[in-house]
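quick one before i forget lol
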Amino acid sequence: MASAFAGLEKGAHNPQTIQIRYRTTLGVTETMYRRLIPLTALSLAVACSSDDSSSSSDTMATSVTVTASTTAGTVTATNSGSASATDSSTSAGSGMSDSQSGTDSTATTGSSVSDTATDSTTASSDSATTAVMETDSGGPACGNGIVEPGEVCDDGVNDNSYDGCSADCQALGPHCGDGMLYEGAELCDDGNDIDNDACSNACGADKCAEIMVVLEPLTPNFMMVLDKSGSMVLNKWDHDQDANTPDVTRWNSLYGVVSDILTGFQDKLNFGVTLFPSKAATNSYTQQACVVQANPEVAVAPNNKNPILAAIPAANSTQIYGGTPASSGMLTAINHLKSLDPKYPRGVLLVTDGAANCNPMAANNTARFEVYDQGLHTVVKDAWNNDTIPTYVVGIDISKANTGNAQDGNPDNIVPYDKLNELAVDGGKPQAGVDKFYATKNQIELQAALEKIAADALSCVVSLDEPPVFPQNTKVKVGVDLVPPVMDCMNEDGWVYVYPMDDMNMPPEAIELCGSWCQQLKDTGEINVEYYCKPG
């Protein structure tokens, strides 16, 4: 291989780096060598020279090593390597000869250069011409990821993306400081390089404090509204579906199931309880049978099992009296939930063994006890439609027969089963199928119903400690699965942002998973949220 070095001259005093490319033509085989040569207080101009008197013969060349040594005043280039045959060349004016199995030296007045490169080529009976060039084509190689003379930029892709380069390497793509605001990549762009003004030199991307966070669902606030009417102890049932064991009161079963649910879910749900009527209710055909406290017996709080069990009648109690003032009990529970932080999911569990009476607006006792309290539906429906507080409705041994028209303290001419079915729909949490409410006939079914409800009430909303800087670039994962963003959480599977007061002009405060992804979150207990400050 023959080569020439010329034009060596003194340069700047600071260390510099230049790039030299070697291209060897051996028949149809081309190989490029690239080396970075540091120079101290020197500048190296590289030229390529050859003339018609140059000749070479090459039988076979492999693993060729090119070495250049530099000392001030003289340039010496040495090519050394091993080959199965000999390659020699003479270039008039350069005084260089080369043998692939030996050593080749060239002296040029000026200074000295040291470099090493290795190539493996195979050729037979070819002519070889070696040239030192800036690029294969004599100009910058746009697309190689190296910014060379004549190029403004070169990112190797050159697709004009944000913080990228144009296809011809002659212009920057959109970038911070160009005075244009690029949504999804910038919060601001004032077109200057002043870092302490209203817009930083990162155009807002420096405000991204987190790239990936693991978030757990919020713990919902959940009120239990329990029927403590006289019928809960007057009526007994086969609680365990075993004819050989004695029947127990409905209240006995309800107490046991509530205890079990609190044991299993008190670390996942913040429970509170309201009784209707309260323990102060009497066994009378008067307003005193419909007394309900204005505040819950136990306010919502974490780990609330013991306070709740202490506040309600004992499992074997028979001193339980009163009517069925369900609407008053629901109002107490819903008003309490509305007084709590609305960012936490809320829900109500209504358990009853009969149709609602004790209408607080009734003019007399007949209207109070013998007329169904349709106001219960208004209370439940408004809680769902206006405040997104759902009500799960559970019935204990509910009759499907018409109540008739007797003065017995029960609402006349209704079918209790049908009324609870309507109420379950109004509450926003109906079951699929014929039974819209949870119709239970024994304690086993009651236990299963409350466990299912508690599991469903687990939250699919995760709070964001800080709103993402670029909300449109957020990615949500459950495990390794990417969850798609959607627009309608009621009817689509994916995730949506939750905004304070439902105001989409404010930064999002939480993420809610919808549909099947909600169930996956309940199963896993956490999601991964990735904040991206710039596209990609």
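fyi DSSP finds nine helices and 26 strands in the chain.
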